[in-house]
Specification:
6-stranded parallel sheet, 16% strand, single chain, two-stranded parallel sheet
């Protein structure tokens, strides 16, 4: 691999994709692919794009992420989340490229007491979770030089996410009801990209051993844990400037009081110990990562 590897990023317009482009931009030759330039539901397009560009690294940040809509669009979700990763793995293995793929806490059913580890039994509750698990299994069946990073509750300063929804609703309302019995680790796309870059740049130097030493599935989330309700309260506590001086009250409710088409796991907390042990990488705590994103949003509003 050259000193400036050719890096192909799928889902380049998404939260994780944009963060990856920013993180890898100074060290890599980037090939940014969005839905218009690479349709992940089209097998021929996937094969053609990889064979035409011959990337050294494939960062698969593209995904079908409409969790509730997936319940009625199973075939599309399975095509993008379940089948496309396997095709990317096949093309990566054919050329010796490194494939990095992002998966989700939704592969678990949330029934465990304590953080989930990589070898725990998967049992997705939703079509979305099942489609992401299918993608993992497709990659593992192909093998090669791959990393699967399971993450959770991803958000950024732009896009569609819980943080931006809370800021919008916080300006409009004096009180909100937020689920308090689902627990996880809010994770910023910037922290995901930073950790991914550190690992991806260390692999060619042999810092982590041979391919067989590091290839596999890992959990990658910000440190700590909180409920959605606690996350909302933290947002409102530190973001009064973004809410025109308002500080809405947040009322805890149960998941059963906020029914959705897709079931969510109650415990989404993922252990990052395997990631730290293999790569020496840890993500920031969710509170400090939140502060960084809010600072970024405040800065954009000033300009």
């Amino acid at each position: 691999m050259s000193s400036r590897p050719r890096v192909l990023v799928t889902g380049a317009d998404g939260q994780v994709g944009r963060a990856l482009l920013s993180q890898f931009g100074n060290t890599s030759e980037l090939i940014a692919c969005n839905r218009q330039t690479l349709d992940l539901s089209n097998a021929d397009q996937i094969r053609g794009k990889i064979r035409d560009t011959r990337p050294d690294i494939i960062l698969n940040a593209g995904a079908y992420t409409a969790v509730d809509r997936a319940e009625t669009e199973r075939d599309l979700a399975m095509s993008i989340n379940g089948q496309a990763p396997g095709l990317l793995a096949e093309e990566a293995k054919r050329t010796g490229a490194l494939l990095i793929h992002y998966s989700t806490d939704y592969v678990f059913d949330g029934s465990k007491n304590g953080p989930w580890i990589e070898d725990d039994r998967t049992n997705p509750l939703s079509v979305y979770g099942a489609s992401k698990l299918a993608g993992e299994e497709a990659i593992r069946s192909v093998g090669g030089r791959y990393l699967i990073f399971r993450t959770s509750w991803v958000y950024a300063a732009e896009g569609k996410n819980f943080l931006l929804t809370m800021l919008r609703l916080g300006r409009e309302r004096d009180s909100l009801n937020v689920v308090d019995d689902q627990v996880g680790a809010p994770t910023t796309s910037a922290e995901l990209a930073r950790a991914t870059h550190e690992i991806a740049t260390g692999i060619p130097t042999g810092s982590f051993g041979s391919d067989s030493d590091w290839a596999g599935t890992y959990h990658m989330t910000c440190a700590g844990s909180v409920s959605w309700c606690g996350f909302a309260r933290a947002i409102f506590e530190v973001a009064p400037r973004l809410l025109d001086g308002k500080k809405p009250s947040v009322n805890p409710i149960k998941t059963s009081e906020y029914p959705t088409p897709a079931r969510r796991p109650l415990n989404s907390l993922l252990s990052n110990e395997k990631l730290a042990a293999r790569f020496g990488v840890r993500l920031a705590g969710w509170q400090s990562a939140l502060d960084e994103v809010l600072i970024s949003i405040a800065g954009k509003q000033k300009t």
